[in-house]
Model the fold of this input.
Amino acid sequence: MFLKLLQGTGLRLSEGRNLQIGDIDKDRLILKVQRGKGGKARIVPLPSSVYGQLRSYWDMQRPPKPWLFSNTNTGNPYVSRSFQRAFNHARKSCDFNDGVTIHTLRHSYATSLLESGVDLSVLQKLLGHYSISSTVIYLHLSTRTFEDARKAINGLFNHEN
Done:
């Protein structure tokens, strides 16, 4: 469930592990990232399908409050290494190469949003980047960016006399 949440929201590993139950706004389907990188807070959309799966997870696991993903033995959030081990196990079972990491889920999220037409400045806010230059790196991963430029160029030159 943790990995599905990161994939569906673009959260960093540390942001996901530090989520608290109260950070979920079920009415507006958003997550309030209170403990983001650099102490920066932001909100991100929570896909309804991921929310439904979170509800099922919560009903089955009932992790100790206040953490969404907490170790039932300690009551504290799982350490990052636990999530990395689980991800590496899943990665190997899917036969993905060693270059695929938990952070790849964040890159996939950002690239998918760009290819769906989300504005770069909106993506910057969703990812919690202070500088747009941190967000611009996703442009080179997006095939849509190149395709949009090609269409614009063709459109310009199709109207020549």
